[in-house]
Amino acid sequence: MRNTNKGAAHIMPPQDISLCMIVKDEAEHLDKCLRSVRDWVSEIIIGDTGSSDQTRSIAMKHGARVIDLEWNNHFAEARNRVLDMATCSWILVLDADEEADGWDSDALHKLLVHEDNIAGFFIPVISYYGTLSEDSFFSDYVCRLFRNHPSIRFRGPIHENIAESILELTDHPIPYAPFPIKHYGYLHSEIDRKNKHSRNLGLIQASLQADPLNVQLRYALGAEYYQSGRYEESLQHLLPVLEQDPESGMISDVYLKAAYALHMTGQHELADVITEQGIKKYPGFTDLLEFKGILLTQKEDYDQAYRWMLLASIQGTAQPMYSTTSGCGTYRTSWLSGRLSEKMLHAERALLHYQHALFLKNDYMPAWTDALHCSLLLGKSHPLPDWIIPSRTSMLPKQLDLLIPAALNTGNGEWLEFIAKSSSLPEQRQLWIMLMRRYASEPGKRLYSELVASSAGPTDTNDPFWLSYRWSAAWKSQDLDDADHEAERLQLIHSPLASIHAYLTGRDKELPSEKDCSNALQLLLQSQAYPQVLQLLAGLFKQSSVPSLPVSVIAGLLNAPVQILQVGCLNWVQSFFNEKQRVPVLEEILLFASLAERCSSSACLNAAAQWLDSYSTNPYALAAKAVCLTEDVRLQHVIPIQSSVRLPLLLRAATMRI
């Protein structure tokens, strides 16, 4: 049916294009797909292979011609039957879980009218994967827009291809056109709903039995195993493809997938060999350049890894002939360069990379998170850059979720004032921020009293949020009766803090989970209940596992009063006289060395330097020992020397995983 929908003046006028689709049970997506194109295609033809939902009625609502197709487990056959019905000069092919994204009317018209010698175009298909996130996608250029010609037809039972028939007809390369399609078919929800992996594997394996030497099918099978995380099985097909058809157009992608699969199966040396071969053959393939840097990172060759990341950044977004993943060559590579810089103890350089990543994608949370954490550990001599917390723009909720504990733990009044004015923070949370900012640093019961008064309403009395802060504020005032009272109420709502309370009071000798301890540390730090902070911290490090303290907790400890840190450092040193068999883990030594540097505890610096000898092969331990000895000499002899390396940054670098 011809599309007679006349939209407003700004809507793209209908072009001489037939939209051709095949569908089955796509009621969830079809309306959105057709809305993205209905105003500028002249006809919509949909082949239905047996829908039992509202797919047909949705298609007809948009003026589509719907034809019934018998499904014979052959995608090309089904698509070609729909192409046979097209009457326009050009054909666009979409799937129901796709949509045209911001196509330019004038550019499309010029493309179709003036390119007489062109029979088709590769256009970018951006496929989102995992859970729906703009940060997770890969893109390929696929021939979806082509002339209506009887010789131009799809081939292949699955992952059907039309480019081969166009090349045979014209003997000209197929050009690329900047008209993106968003594809949602690789989201977990869609893969599970349609049982895609099982369906695809069955079709490909059946086709390979009939045509066992077909390289495209062998590649498709390897890619299917790869996408489902079955890397061993994917290699059984991807590696032979490299040997069988080294000149095929999909070989660049085979190199990348094979190298990654080898890496994921522990075959690191072979992964490096395949990566090197791929880069030699495709020196402009940004994703391979970045992956080379990742492989070197696993070998802890951070300097060379950083150089490869720079090469990937210089190359930029991959050229259209390559399949690429989100942010490669741009914001993601800049972020990885920042993390490598931190591993090499170049914090200021790392911040420049994080800033560049956020310039390229201002809501890229990995870069923003690392920028915040790196800045926190640089200390008060390095104020937080204004590009991390821009004063005139609102923050994303997930940014506030990270900034709030950092601001409360460190008692940063400027940040707390900024947070309190945030429009995305509910009124009751704004009140809470105001109370914490005003009373957390006051001695005595004032904070607890104000929190109790502010949460006296019927909806707040048993609110887990207010109860948690009242409990920590009671500990701040060192009033055990109040703390017990709040703990009883926490017990009634089955809060993990009840177990933390039992441990702090000595009623339970077993330390709760690391996650629960970490949450309690945040609360106690924010209320400045420092004796309980030190007690909980000591208990965490007595466990055999290595606790992973959030950076906001470490920053909060570093901002605690000097006299509190001196007590903590002294307790740490003395604990080894009582537990002679315990060898502290490296992260523990680096943390207390950082606290000792902050409070000028010579005894703790000395103890840390001695314990660091237990990790003599670790470069971060060696650097930390040098800093400890330098700082101790400065304290003992009042010599004006200072290390350029900060111990908190050493702690972060030693524990950071890339």
UniProtKB/TrEMBL annotation:
InterPro entries, per database record: Glyco_trans_2-like, Nucleotide-diphossugar_trans, TPR-like_helical_dom_sf, TPR_rpt
The TPR repeat units are at 215-248
Quote the SUPFAM superfamilies the UniProt record gives: Nucleotide-diphospho-sugar transferases, TPR-like
Residue ranges of domain Glycosyltransferase 2-like in the record: 18-127
Keyword vocabulary terms for this entry: TPR repeat
Alphabetical list of PANTHER family matching this protein = GLYCOSYLTRANSFERASE (PTHR43630:SF2), POLY-BETA-1,6-N-ACETYL-D-GLUCOSAMINE SYNTHASE (PTHR43630)
Recorded protein name is: Tetratricopeptide repeat protein
This protein's species is Paenibacillus dendrobii
